[in-house]
Structures are given as structure tokens and as C-alpha cells.
Amino acid sequence: MIAELATAKNDAALASIVTRAADLIHERSEQLVRERQQTAAILAEVTKRLEEMAGYLTNSNHANRSHFEDTQSYNDSVMSQVRALTDEAGSATELGVLQALVNARLERVAQQVSNFRAREESRILEVNGRAERMRTRITELERESIDLHSKLDSEKQGARIDPLTGIANRKSFEERFAQQIAGKPNAAVAVVMLLWDLDNFKMVNDSYGHRAGDRVLQSVAACFMAAVRGNDFVARIGGEEFVMLLSGTKIAQALLIANQVRSAVEALRFHFRGTPVRVTVSCGLAELQENDLAGSAFDRADSALYRAKHGGKNLCVAA
Predict the structure, then answer these.
(1) Average pLDDT of span 38-62
(2) pLDDT value of residue 313
(3) Fewer Cβ in 10 A, N or C end of the chain?
(4) Taking 70 as the threshold, does the pLDDT of residue 185 lie above it?
């Protein structure tokens, strides 16, 4: 766009560049909003889990401390009964009186044991119930985590799809192109980039409206998708700009494929407001080289596209 800006001849050309720049800025802004929303969702989920775990640990600690204090109090009480019984037994002078003292103390000890057991059973039930609720909650959190990751993966995938045409968008292309560039020095498989641009697309929008322009973009994208093979890649990277990456294809073969696609687009039939509208595309091709940089490879394809445009349009030109 910087190169086009330097050669802009009139207000219409300048407006087209500004519009494309605005589209890129808008797309980037939406992407940042989605990323912030995803990050906020993850942080909120993590905070929620940490708070629940902290609450469970606090309750468990309180229960353990209460159990320790109760046990200590129970032991002190029993020992107190034993000491009192020892003192009373030492001062008793008759067997009947001694038996009565022992029975009374033993009943008190038995009651204390019974009460302690009842509290222990209640405490165990409470601890087990709390542990079971925590296990259930952990299972729920795991399921929620899976659902959240699935949703984030879906949103992430959606952020890489052009909503109008249903094909990959610029972000997806940049990631794929970076992978191709990174792997190229060690790869024996040729990769050719095809940079496409619809000819006179602004005229379609200005004359017949943006809905007509959207139909053209969708139909052209379908033509591109029909031409690619399993390992190939196609994306919409701007308003009327598309790109292909053809794997295992040398430049001569890629030029033949490009001309077949160009002919398929030219054969499309559009009628808007009762008027037949002819749509054509131009293409610049560049084969990725060893130690290529993303910018240099793209610039070669863009320069070839520039020559196609200035050569009369509806052309495919190899760098």
C-alpha cells in the first residue's frame, strides 16, 4: 500500500488505499478485543477456582484445629475423672461406698466417651461430605475447563476465518507463511506464492453497491478454493486481495494453475440491476527461495502483480 500510495494518480486511487488501510486497522482492533476477552475469561476462571480451593483448605484447616482441640479437651476430662476417682477411692472406708463411687465415675467417663464418639461421627460425616462436594466440584471444574478451552479454540479458529468468504484471513495467512518461510531452508519441496487482486473492484461497489461486491468476493473465493489441493493454502488478506501458497509446485506449473484459475474467474457470470458484469483478476507469482524473508518473498509477488495490473489486467505474471 505504501508503494501504491507513492504512485496514486487521483482521489479515487487514494480513497481505495485509505479504505484498505482502514479495513486492516479494523480487523486488527477486533482481533485485540477478542484476545482481551479471551484473556479475561481465562483469568476469571482461574480466580474462581483458586477462591474455591482456598475456601476448601480454610474449612479443612478449621475442622482439623477443632478436632485437635476437642480431642485435647476430651483427654483432659477423662484424666480429670480418673484423678477424682483415685482420690475418692483412697478415702473410701467401705466396699459399698467404693463401688458406688467407681460406678458413678465410670458412668461419667462412658457418657463423655459416647459424646466424643457422637461428635467424631458428626465431624467425619461433615468432612466426608465436604470432600465429596469438593470432588464433585473438581469434576465440574474439569468439565467447565474443557468447555472453556473448546470455546476458546472455536473463537481462535473463528478469528482466523474471513467471515464474508469463509476462507482463511490475513492473520491465518501470516502464520502459515511464517511456517513456510521458517521451514524453507531445510525443505526440498518448492512453494510458490500467488498474490491475487480483483480488477476494477471499486467500480462494482460504486456502481452496484456493497452487497454486489460481497457476492463477487464470495464467488471468486469459491473459485480459488476449488483450485487448491490438500497441502495448498488460500486466504483473503485485504478488501479484494487474496493469496495462495502452492506446495510441491515449481513456478512454471504454478503459472499454468494461475491462468486456469484466472480463466475460471473470468467465466463467472454476474448480473446486477439487470446488467451483466464481467469480473477478472490479476496475479503475481513468486517462488520461495532459501533464506527468504517473508517481506522479500511478498515484495517479489507484489511487484509481479503490479506488472500484471499495468500490463492490461486479467493477467498472471511470474516474478
Answers:
(1) 72
(2) 94
(3) N
(4) no
Instruction: Tell me if 27 is assigned to some domain.
Output: no
Which pLDDT band, with edges at 50, 70 and 90, does 152 fall under? low
CATH number at residue 219: 3.30.70.270
Q: What is the mean pLDDT of residues 88-100?
A: 67
Q: Residue 238 sits in which domain range? A: 162-318
Q: Which three cell numbers stand for residue 287?
A: 517462488
Residues with Cβ < 8 Å from 157, sequence gap 6 or more?
A: none
| 270: nearest Cα among 310, 217, 193 | 217
Given 143, 158, 173, which residue is the final one in a domain?
158
Alpha helices in the chain (DSSP H): 2-7, 11-91, 95-158, 170-183, 201-208, 210-227, 251-266, 294-310
**pLDDT value at residue 252:** 94
Active-site annotation holds for 51: no
159 φ, ψ to 5°?
-70, -10
132, 240, 266, 290: which one is catalytic? 240
